[in-house]
């Protein structure tokens, strides 16, 4: 995020005391900034985007079950089901450490490639999961980067309609 925009982001990312999630308006503003392409957009570079995507897919089935992803020019969206023994925080720490170091090496820079934290959301049911996957796949379309989601190279949408969820259990879980 450019330095001149950090003050705006700081306000957006500060939640009411006791809240652990941004409200809907905060989420919309954050997404609008990301979709507008602020920042260095290093993930536009094919070598870096490919490395990030490969790192995501490398641990599929080992640390998590990958359901959907998209590598955008300045951020990444993923949906995965955690595998027992691999807490989300540990997975994100390792992913961001590896890909951040690799990106810095490729770019010949030093510093913090990723924002220090990450945003996560609990998926409540199969309908919510399908909505989240649709949102992720449509992110490049919404940002004006492609006309059809499947045209974005660094996205699970390019594989077309494939089953990404298990059948819902009778209790509504998945």
List keywords for this structure.
single chain; 174 residues; mainly alpha; Alpha-Beta Plaits; 2 domains; two-stranded antiparallel sheet; 5 helices; 9% strand; disordered C terminus
Coarse morphology: globular
Uncertain spans, ≥5 residues at pLDDT below 50?
163-174
CATH class of the largest domain: Alpha Beta
Number of strands: 2
Give helix and strand order, one letter per element, not per position. Answer: HHHEEHH
Structural class determined from secondary elements: mainly alpha
Helices and strands in order:
Elements: H1 6-13, H2 24-35, H3 46-58, E1 64-71, E2 76-82, H4 88-107, H5 126-142
Antiparallel strand pairs: 1-2
Overall description:
There is one protein chain. The N and C termini lie far apart (36 Å). The radius of gyration is 16 Å and the shape is globular. With 174 residues, the chain is mostly helical. A hairpin with a 4-residue loop joins strand 1 and strand 2. The chain folds into 2 domains: 1-39, no CATH class; 43-159, Transposase IS200-like (Alpha-Beta Plaits, 2-Layer Sandwich), CATH 3.30.70. The protein has 5 helices and 2 strands; from the N terminus they run H-H-H-E-E-H-H. The protein has helices spanning 6-13, 24-35, 46-58, 88-107, 126-142; strands at residues 64-71, 76-82.
Describe what is shown at a glance.
With 174 residues, the protein is mainly α.
């Amino acid at each position: 995020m450019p330095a001149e925009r950090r003050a705006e982001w700081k306000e957006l990312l500060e939640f009411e005391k006791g809240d652990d999630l941004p409200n809907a308006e905060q989420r919309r503003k954050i997404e609008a900034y990301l979709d507008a392409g602020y920042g260095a957009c290093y993930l536009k570079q094919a070598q870096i985007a490919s490395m990030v995507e490969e790192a995501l897919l490398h641990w599929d089935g080992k640390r998590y079950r990958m359901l959907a992803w998209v590598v955008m020019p300045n951020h990444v969206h993923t949906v995965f089901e955690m595998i027992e023994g691999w807490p989300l925080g540990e997975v994100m720490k390792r992913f961001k450490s590896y890909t951040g170091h690799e990106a810095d090496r490729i770019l010949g820079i030093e510093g913090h490639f990723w924002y220090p934290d990450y945003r996560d959301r609990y998926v409540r049911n199969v309908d919510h999961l399908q909505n989240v996957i649709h949102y992720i796949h449509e992110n490049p379309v919404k940002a004006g980067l492609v006309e059809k989601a499947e045209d974005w190279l660094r996205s699970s949408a390019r594989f077309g309609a494939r089953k990404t969820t298990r059948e819902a259990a009778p209790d509504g879980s998945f």
